Amino acid sequence: VKPERSAADERYVCIDDVTKEFDGFVAVDDVSLNIRKGEIFALLGGSGCGKSTLLRCLAGFEKPTTGRILLDGQVLNELPPYERPINMMFQSYALFPHMTVEQNIAFGLKQDRMTRADIKRRVDEMLTLVQMTKYAVRKPHQLSGGQQQRVALARSLAKSPKLLLLDEPMGALDKKLRSQMQLELVNIIEKLGVTCVMVTHDQEEAMTMATRIALMDSGRIRQVGTPDEIYEQPTSRFAAEFIGSVNIIDGVIKDDEKDFVTIQSAALAHLIHIGHGISGFEGQRVNFALRPEKITVSKEEPADAHNKAQGSIEEIAYFGSHSVFHVRLPSGTKLMAHFANRKRWASESFTWNEKVWLSWGENAGVVLPT
Ligand code: ATP
């Protein structure tokens, strides 16, 4: 059983109404966030959404125009970067090229006037932690991208910062190495229990690494939640579309059935039945968001399904574990549906232009404001 977090740990990093303007341009717009001790927190968003500016405010490279930033109860606003108990790992790693791996890791410790024996002990610990002991006397250019990243991480963790900042940590790595390093990084960070804020534009990276995500757009926070919450319960069309793929169906709320709220849409021949309460009023225009993997594809009309639509397969994209069917409905609307390829050999296989039925459960989708 995990111990309850104290109120102070809940607000370990406290971003309080922070706005950052550059010559009248608002890059970060009144952002408030509480980040918990020990958490890996991701700032996720597209190019220009303000995520790097917010990270730079935490590091002290930028000063908020208004608002406060606190770490472990201490107000940081007036502290220069080098006086903050914070370390930042840059996308480019910024290793010193003329220094060996161990000299790179020792660099910050030397500035702290530690004894030689203590520095040696700490560097060895860090080398073990990132499994780079064998490479201690190499120079950065003699290392692979993944190895350079491990050294950069060891260097940023050597001084036991209260907060570790990661700026697009996997930006320089290719896709395969990236997913391996994501897990490795999380393991190391969790082993040390260090609190971490990372910036990424890559939703997959945020989903794999973060305990919680703040989704940003135009300088504002659109949603904060665990990866699971943001994926399963997006609160806006923006969030639903930013993470994963999704079908968006326009419609109007109708409230005339006993056990269901229904949505009428010009895209579908049948009403959409929703089995849970929703916020909204009869006649309100809404977006119904439905993930492709929540849809079942079948040849026969599913007799007891409340939610169904018939259409023809216009495109099949093969992804190994599953295929994505693009199904055109008579209204002209196209829906994406996943088909698990483990089922493919069992009974059904599908071809282009084939007529199929799509069906989904009453709790499969989310109703969002337009
Ligand atoms: P990217 O992923 O492309 O780095 P981002 O979400 O990190 O994007 P920021 O770098 O935070 O975005 O920039 C947010 C906005 O603020 C951008 O429109 C950018 O042009 C602007 N901006 C950032 N730094 C400055 C600056 N020093 N002076 C003027 N405008 C700036």
TrEMBL record:
Residues 13-243 form the ABC transporter domain. One of its GO terms (cellular component) is ATP-binding cassette (ABC) transporter complex. It catalyses: ATP + H2O + polyamine-[polyamine-binding protein]Side 1 = ADP + phosphate + polyamineSide 2 + [polyamine-binding protein]Side 1. Its EC number is 7.6.2.11. The keyword Nucleotide-binding applies. It comes from the Bacteria. Keywords: ATP-binding, Cell inner membrane, Cell membrane, Membrane, Nucleotide-binding, Translocase, Transport. GO terms for biological process: putrescine transport. SMART domains: AAA. The keyword Cell inner membrane applies. SUPFAM superfamilies: MOP-like, P-loop containing nucleoside triphosphate hydrolases. Part of the ABC transporter complex PotABCD involved in spermidine/putrescine import. Responsible for energy coupling to the transport system. Belongs to the ABC transporter superfamily. Spermidine/putrescine importer (TC 3.A.1.11.1) family. The complex is composed of two ATP-binding proteins (PotA), two transmembrane proteins (PotB and PotC) and a solute-binding protein (PotD). This is Spermidine/putrescine import ATP-binding protein PotA. It comes from Ahniella affigens. The gene is potG.
